Each structure stands twice: as C-alpha cells, then as structure tokens.
C-alpha cells in the first residue's frame, strides 16, 4: 500500500513539474499594460499665433515600454475660434490635429511603437480667423493626454 501511494505521488509530482516547466516560458513572455495621464497648462493662442508650449512628463515608466495608443481630451473654452493642436512625443514625432471648438475626446495611433518615457510637448496655433465675433481670433484649450503602453 505504501509503495502504491508513493508511486502515485511520484507520478503526480512529475506531471506537476512538467506542466510548470512548459508553462513558465509562456508566463515569462507575457507583457503588461499600463498608462499615465497628465494635463497641460491652459493653452492660449491669438490672431494666428502660437500658444505657450506645455510640457508633460511620463513620470517613471519601465525601460523597453512601447506606446500602444494615446487618448486626447481637449477641454475648450467657450467661444474658441478654430486652431490646430500639436503633440510632440519624447522621440520628436510631431502630430497635428484640427482642434475641436467644443470639448472632445479622440484617440490616435500616431505614436504607436515609440517610447512613452520622457517629456511630451503640447501647443496650439490659432487659425487667424474668427467665427465668434471676436476682435482678434482667439483659441483657448487645456489638453489631457493619456498614454497607454506595453512593457
């Protein structure tokens, strides 16, 4: 009876060890996903001009991280005239978007594959045309970036 229990225990342990041996490389190869979210200072642009450049930093992100998407929420001041929104990644890629004249959220894959680590820059440029009866065309927005990445 003792030897039968011992054999069953040995077989069960051998199967368990074999399963662990084959499962470990798969577990080690999986990636993790994360994100950071930051908000710019208020961006003001007048009469065809450029706003201040607002810098947002990634904080601590793991080495080897790779951007999978960027969600952009633009909080627009009432009466804002048309403008172009610019976002520059830490690697230097600049993407431009026609800025919404009312608050909106959109997602972009322009930065996919780049490192999220470092300083992101955001600014707007006023179109120089007023549709709101302003003496000088004016655009005001605050931008929240949420950068999703795998590592």
Question: What would your notes on this structure say?
Answer:
Strands 1, 2, 4, 7 and 9 form a 5-stranded antiparallel β-sheet that branches. A 4-stranded antiparallel β-sheet has the order 3-8-5-6, with no helix packed on it. The chain starts with a helix and ends with a strand. The chain has one helix spanning 2-29; strands at residues 33-39, 43-46, 54-57, 66-76, 83-88, 94-98, 104-108, 119-126, 138-150. A hairpin with a 5-residue loop joins strand 5 and strand 6 (94-98). With 151 residues, the protein is of the alpha+beta class. The chain contains 1 helix and 9 strands. It is elongated, with a radius of gyration of 25 Å. It folds into 2 domains: 1-30; 33-150, Jelly Rolls (Sandwich).
Helices, strands, pairings?
Blueprint: H1 2-29, E1 33-39, E2 43-46, E3 54-57, E4 66-76, E5 83-88, E6 94-98, E7 104-108, E8 119-126, E9 138-150
Antiparallel strand pairs: 1-9, 2-9, 3-8, 4-7, 4-9, 5-6, 5-8
What is the third-level CATH name, the topology of the largest domain? Answer: Jelly Rolls
- The shape, in one word, is elongated
Beta-strand content estimate: 35-45%
Q: State the CATH architecture of the largest domain.
A: Sandwich
The CATH class label of the largest domain is Mainly Beta
Task: Provide the CATH superfamily of the largest domain.
Answer: Galactose-binding domain-like
Number of separate domains: 2
Radius of gyration: 25 Å
Q: What fraction, in percent, of the residue positions are helical?
A: 10-25%
Uncertain residue segments: 20-29
Give the number of DSSP strands: 9
| Total DSSP helices | 1
Q: Please write the string of helix (H) and strand (E) elements.
A: HEEEEEEEEE
What structural class results from the helix and strand content?
Answer: alpha+beta
């Amino acid at each position: 009876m003792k030897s039968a229990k011992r054999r069953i225990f040995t077989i069960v342990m051998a199967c368990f060890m074999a399963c662990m041996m084959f499962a470990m490389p798969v577990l080690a190869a999986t990636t993790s996903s994360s994100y950071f979210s930051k908000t710019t200072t208020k961006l003001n642009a007048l009469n065809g001009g450029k706003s201040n450049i607002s810098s947002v930093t990634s904080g601590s992100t793991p080495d080897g991280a790779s951007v999978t998407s960027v969600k952009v929420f633009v909080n627009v001041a009432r009466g804002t005239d048309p403008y172009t929104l610019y976002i520059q990644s830490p690697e230097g890629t600049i993407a431009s978007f026609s800025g919404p004249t009312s608050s909106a959220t959109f997602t972009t894959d322009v930065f996919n594959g780049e490192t999220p680590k470092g300083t992101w820059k955001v600014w707007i440029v006023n179109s120089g045309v007023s549709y709101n009866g302003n003496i000088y065309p004016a655009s005001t927005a605050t931008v929240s970036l949420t950068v999703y990445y795998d590592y």
